[in-house]
Structures are given as C-alpha cells and as structure tokens.
C-alpha cells in the first residue's frame, strides 16, 4: 500500500512547500499540490496552467489524474487557483487521495497543503500515514504549531524544526521541546538555514544536484535525513 505523506502547517512561511518538493523527489513520490497560493509548488515546479485543470477535472469526473513527469524534480499533480472555491469536504478529499495513491501504486505520495485548517488540508491529514509539520523557531510560528497540535494531536504528526540558525534562541527551542514532550510527538532531524538557489536551478530539487554544490552539502544531507525519518515513520 502507498504511504501518503501530507505536509501541513497552520502558519505560512515555515518552508512547507520547499520541504514537500524535496521530500517528493527523495521518496520518488508524485506530489499532489492542494495549495492554491500563487507562489506554491506548482509554479515553482515550472508548470504552465492551461484552460483545463488536471486537479479540478479529476475531482469533477471522479477520475485519476496522471502526474506530470519531472526531471530532477518530483512528478506533479498541479494545483489550481480556483481550488479554494471548489475544494470538496475533508472526507471526500481523504477518499480521493487514497484512491489516487492506490491507482498510482507508488510506495509514497506526497501532498502539499494550504496553510491553515481548510477542508482540503484536513482531508489530506486524515488520509496521511504521516503528517510532516515543519516549524520555524519564532514566536508566531510556534503559536501556529501549538494551535495545529491542539486540534490534531491524535494525528500521526512528525515535527520538523526548519530554517534553524546555527545558534538558535534557547527560549524558543525550550518552548518547542515543551510542546513535543507534552504531546509525546516525534521530531525529525533539524533542517538548518540555507541560501536560495540560483534562478536557473530553482526548479530542481536541491537533493537532485549531482554532485551537490559545496555550499549546499549540509542542507542536502539534512533533507535526506528528514526523508529517511519519513520513510521509517512508525517502524520499530
């Protein structure tokens, strides 16, 4: 059975989409983009919208979309800006994702979601074998994480400290530790701060570079460590 990996956060700007793109590549998984924001995974992947939305068409027809093939990046079911107004209820989203995953017969499917608790996001979380939740060590971002945990603490959450500076604020790391300890949540390896890719390479997964540029070696290694934590989630 395919393992659905949903990347979700209640606060934007925590690196959710970047992590989803990288995990999909590393897990050799199709990426389903349920985020309707203009700067989401679909645009960064390089997909050019057409009059027909693969995502909305599949939902309307009850069919299974064919992921667009990627080179040095994951295959993609592109998102659509009209999805916000046309998203099904959470239980329908969960059922559809499970159906698509079974039809694709890939070991993993990664789903990127819109920040917050929209029906599509909650549905993707309901279908997930693991909900990857990136968080930045900042007050507002930790507030968002706490809100998500309080509402979904019984979900299979995996917390990913993201964009962590070399010398993090002890007060903020202490707050994160208190949260994960209180709710007994697993924590993935830390992903540190990193520089942006050059424009010509922005559509590639960092982990797809061979060889990896020296300035990106640490970051690529950390991404692979997170992917391994996702791959082995729930294994004893």
Describe, in plain words, how this protein is organized in 3D.
The model has no long low-confidence stretch (mean pLDDT 92). The chain is 40% helix and 11% strand. The chain has helices at 16-26, 41-45, 54-61, 83-86, 90-104, 119-127, 139-152, 170-182, 217-231; strands spanning 3-7, 31-33, 76-77, 108-112, 130-135, 157-161. The chain has a 6-stranded parallel β-sheet, sandwiched between helices. Strand 5, helix 7 (139-152) and strand 6 (157-161) form a beta-alpha-beta unit. It has a single domain (3-231), classed as P-loop containing nucleotide triphosphate hydrolases (Rossmann fold), CATH 3.40.50. The chain has 9 helices and 6 strands. The chain has 236 residues and is α/β, with parallel strands linked by helices. Helix 1 (16-26) crosses helix 9 (217-231) and helix 5 (90-104) packs across helix 6 (119-127).
Question: Which helices and strands occur, and which strands form pairs?
Answer:
Blueprint: E1 3-7, H1 16-26, E2 31-33, H2 41-45, H3 54-61, E3 76-77, H4 83-86, H5 90-104, E4 108-112, H6 119-127, E5 130-135, H7 139-152, E6 157-161, H8 170-182, H9 217-231
Parallel strand pairs: 1-4, 1-5, 2-3, 2-4, 5-6
Order of helices and strands: EHEHHEHHEHEHEHH
Biggest pleated sheet: 6 strands, parallel
**End-to-end gap:** 18 Å
Overall geometry comes to globular
Binned, the helix content reads 25-40%
Measured on Cα atoms, how large is the radius of gyration?
Answer: 17 Å
Instruction: Please count the helical segments.
Output: 9
* Backbone structural class: alpha/beta
CATH first level: which class?
A: Alpha Beta
The CATH topology is what? Rossmann fold
β-sheet strand percentage: 5-15%
How many domains comprise the coordinates?
A: 1
User: Unreliable runs, pLDDT <50, ≥5 residues?
Assistant: none
Which homologous superfamily in CATH is the superfamily? Answer: P-loop containing nucleotide triphosphate hydrolases
Count the strands?
A: 6
Strand order in the sheet with the most strands: 3-2-4-1-5-6
Kindly report the average pLDDT value. 92
**What CATH architecture label applies?**
3-Layer(aba) Sandwich
């Amino acid at each position: 059975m395919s393992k659905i990996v949903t990347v979700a956060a209640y606060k934007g700007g925590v690196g959710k989409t970047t992590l989803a793109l990288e995990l999909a590549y590393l897990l050799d998984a199709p990426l389903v983009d349920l985020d309707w924001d203009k700067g989401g995974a679909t645009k960064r992947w390089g997909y050019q919208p057409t009059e027909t939305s693969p995502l909305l068409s599949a939902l309307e027809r009850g069919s299974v979309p064919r992921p667009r093939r990627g080179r040095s990046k994951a295959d993609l079911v592109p998102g659509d800006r009209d999805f916000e107004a046309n998203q099904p209820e959470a239980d329908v989203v969960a059922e559809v994702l499970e159906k698509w995953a079974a039809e694709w017969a890939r070991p993993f499917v990664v789903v990127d979601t819109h920040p917050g608790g929209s029906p599509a996001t909650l549905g993707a979380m309901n279908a997930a074998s693991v909900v990857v939740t990136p968080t930045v060590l900042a007050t507002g971002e930790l507030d968002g994480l706490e809100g998500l945990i309080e509402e979904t603490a019984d979900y299979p959450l995996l917390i990913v400290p993201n964009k962590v500076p070399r010398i993090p604020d002890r007060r903020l790391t202490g707050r994160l530790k208190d949260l994960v300890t209180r709710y007994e949540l697993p924590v993935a390896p830390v992903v540190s701060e990193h520089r942006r890719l050059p424009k010509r390479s922005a559509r590639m997964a960092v982990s797809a570079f061979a060889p990896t540029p020296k300035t990106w070696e640490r970051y690529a290694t950390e991404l692979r460590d997170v992917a391994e934590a996702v791959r082995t989630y729930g294994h004893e």
